[in-house]
Structures are given as C-alpha cells and as structure tokens.
C-alpha cells in the first residue's frame, strides 16, 4: 500500500493509523478511535467496516448499499473533532458532493461498548 496521510487528520500514515482498525489488525480501544476510523473508512470506501462497526440494534436501519451510495457521492475533505468523552464524539466532517458543492456533516455520535468492542449506535445532527 502506498504511503499516505491518514484521512482522520492524525498526521500519521494511514497504514499506521486507521488502517490498523479497518484491516482488523486491531480493535478500536476508544469511541474516538472508532469514530476516526469510520471517517477514514468513508474516505477509503471500506463499506464492510462501516456496516460491521454499526451496533446490531440499529444495523437494520441502514444497508451496505446505502453506505456505499453516500461514500460514492461524496469527496471527503477534512475531519474536525469538536468534543468527546467516553461514549460520545461530536465532530464536523467537511465534504463536497458530486457537483462540487461544499457541505459540513455536524454530528454528535453515540457509541456503545460491547463484547470488548466499540460500536456506532446513532447520532444527533446539526445544521
């Protein structure tokens, strides 16, 4: 794999950062690590990782096709962490749609720790 900065903004190489979670070599130890790796997974179009790190209780609300569609229709630009504590991460994800229009996805995400692993549950969205 070519050396490149991790999309999460850590200033580490992707292979030394979020790829370690996405490739399943490591499990995210914190909700923040999971959130950052999920952002990177959107950038890198790692649909299975996004689906599998969504909590089982809410997986039925999404689909791999829906995740892929959104990932394919966006050009992710930057991740900004606003706030985090053990099971909550608030962030802004900057992106462009296919027409080049800029957007900000501002979310306060909730995570759940189960069976020694963090999962995304849901989030509150802000405009």
Structure description:
26% of the residues lie in helices and 35% in strands. The protein has 127 residues and is of the alpha+beta class. It is globular, with a radius of gyration of 14 Å.
Major sheet attributes: 4 strands, antiparallel
Output mean pLDDT.
94
Q: What is the molecular shape?
A: globular
Succession of helices and strands: HHHHEEEE
Features:
127 residues; alpha+beta; Nuclear Transport Factor 2, Chain: A; four-stranded antiparallel beta sheet; 4 helices; globular
Topology summary:
Elements: H1 19-22, H2 31-44, H3 47-52, H4 64-72, E1 74-85, E2 88-97, E3 102-114, E4 117-126
What is the gist of this entry?
This protein has helices at residues 19-22, 31-44, 47-52, 64-72, and strands at residues 74-85, 88-97, 102-114, 117-126. The chain is an alpha+beta fold and 127 residues long.
